[in-house]
Amino acid sequence: MLYYTDFFSSDLMANSYFSNFHLYVFYMSGCQILQFYYQAGSLYKLRALGRAEHMEVSAEGLRVKTYADLVFLTPFFMILYIFQFYNGYVLLLISSAAPYDERWEVVLCGLLFVCISLGNVLTLLHVILLKHQIHKLVKSPEVMRRNFSETLLNSLSKDKKS
């Protein structure tokens, strides 16, 4: 993020924003590490079951376990997205106190932070809703019986062929 030190040197709010922004960057890095381990673990499980290739980016498969992992990650991401929104809000407050000819960059950065955070929250809620619907469907007794009967039929057909 680009900022001008002479422009913000006298503003206490802007100086506190920079320390908050650095904290946000460190927290985002931690969330990205958690997300990496989540995705790598999911892909490893799918590869072990033979449902995904080595270089596959995204795949559906282990719905129950990945749902539990996603529920674990959700609070970390929600805090991150609230932090993004807060950064955008603070930038918009800083821009309102700045001289008119020097504030368009700050306004743009603030609006981008707000838009990105709202988009991230909506996307996360949509994914959680879809995963929850799939989780409920997989856990339903009809699906469990159908999966058991399909597994039983598949194993019986393999035994007949051998």
Q: How would you describe this structure to a colleague?
A:
The chain is an all-alpha fold. Helices cover 83% and strands 0% of the residues. It has five helices and no strands. Helix 2 (12-49) runs antiparallel to helix 3 and helix 3 runs antiparallel to helix 4 (104-139). The mean pLDDT is 76.
Helix/strand layout:
Elements: H1 5-8, H2 12-49, H3 63-97, H4 104-139, H5 141-161
Helix pairs in contact: 2-3, 3-4
Give a nutshell description of this structure.
The chain has 162 residues and is mainly α. It has 5 helices and no strands. Helix content is 83%, strand content 0%.
- Report how far the terminal alpha carbons are from each other: 64 Å
Report the sheet-strand fraction. under 5%
Quickly count the helices.
5
Q: Work out the number of β strands.
A: 0
Structural class, by secondary structure, is: mainly alpha
Characteristic terms for this protein:
162 residues, elongated
